[in-house]
Design brief:
By secondary structure, the chain is an alpha/beta fold. Helix content is about 55%, strand content about 5%. Residues about 1-15, about 95-100 and about 355-370 have low confidence and may be disordered.
Amino acid sequence: MTNITGRVREAFRGDQRVDADALIARLDAVRRFLTAVDGLLPDAELVPAHTLVERAGTRLALSRDHTVVALAGATGSGKSSLFNALAQLELSPVGVRRPTTGVTHACVWGPLEGANRLLDWIGVLPRHRFVRESALDADDETALHGLILLDLPDFDSVQRSHRLEVDRLLGLVDQVVWVVDPQKYADRVIHDSYLREFHRHRDVTVVVLNQADRLPPTEVPRVLDDLRRLLDTDGLTGVPLLSTTAIDPAGMVGLRGALERTVAERQAALRRLAGDVDTVVAGLDELVGSARPAGGPDDSTVDSLNRALAGAAGVPAVTEAVQQAYRHRAVAATGWPLVRGWRRLRPDPLRRLHLPGPADAGADAAESLVAATSVPDPTAAQRSALGLAIRAVADRAAADLPAAWPGAVTAAARSRLGDLPDALDRTIAGTDLGLGRRPLWWRVVGGVQWLVTLAAVVGLGWLVLGYALRALGLPALDNPMVGQVPLPTLLLLGGLLAGLLLSALTRPVVRWAARRARARAEQRLTAKVARVGEEYVLTPVRVVLGSYAQARDALRDAARR
């Protein structure tokens, strides 16, 4: 798939017009990109985009009837002479002292009032602003009305402040006329540091070989050809290349004609901003690439995360307590009534963990849960397993993303790590473990146990009463016989044996039911813990992936023309 850089790298509009609405849409796409990546990518990588949005918005809000053209060049290139020749006034100082131009001068064709706000934004001091308007000109200068011509300081000045000022202004003007002279037209400074950096602004770039009068007429074409070769190497194929001389009006015709066309088209500002968008998009392309991210980590990675969360939350300890509590409660409900009270004196296993105990029955169980539990803290191994699982989620989710994004995904996955322990504890405390109601079979078995116990008590009482009567010399009771066994004895022994046998028969059932209760509790706890993982780990990761997709789409829209 062709990346965004490839689509904008060789953009050259030439005579093509830039639609203002389309340009605004591209700038809005850059804004959407910045919104999508806010807080996710390093700010240093986004400075050009922020600068573009700010500058473009201001430039479009200011006068579109003016075109700002800068004359830029090295010391001795004669750009100030060109500036004065175009204005036909001595506005910018010319001399042998270097650097001659220390501040930016501006000449406005037309009323100065309409250009003042634009010049304020550019930063040209009022005392260095001039108006090219004279009654003597008649209509001679009409073709240039709306032109703001700047004479910049020398970019190779020994004074660093001059170079910084040039760099600042080159980012603001609509069009640049690069002025070179026959002696230094091949200088590496202008080609490596400036012209090559303007290859995406070819449609607002003009190069002039000034002081052509210093060359023999036969040498001018050769020098121009060599300069054209250098410009092609710089990526400036197709830019206008002119020869000029400030001392001869005929030597200014080509440059003046180029400026008149620029002013008449009213396209320079739009083309400059379009080139700025191209440059910014190309710089941002490596941050988003062309990958289409997955919706998140795969199921196996999520399952591993849930297992690690369950371990850290103490789910194994809780489910073990559920199994023990079920057996404890079942035996207390179905065992021999004579020892049930002793059984209830033993602590309920769930109560030791501050989880629902025997009193938490029915619908009131959820209301009686406490906000925190006494589930043992996760071990070092469990914490390590959770950290590795979260890392695996981030790595899997960011597997296809460009290099700038995995860090953001990892940070998102770990962003709520500090809140996980409390969230897991609240989840464990708030989960219905399924022990709120007594099973019906407990009641049935318990009722049978009471019946056989009552039979044993009746038989015992009957026998005691008979012995007491005989001891007092009173007539003995007539004990009915069941076969060869007296009924009281049968009631006593049968009740005791039936109770013990019933307890023995129910114990395997209790163990089986306790295991099922543990499995149900484990299923419920795991589902609740998975929701915590979704909220605290997976959702932040998916938010970053969504931001990446939005940024990718926005940058794709910004690259369209």
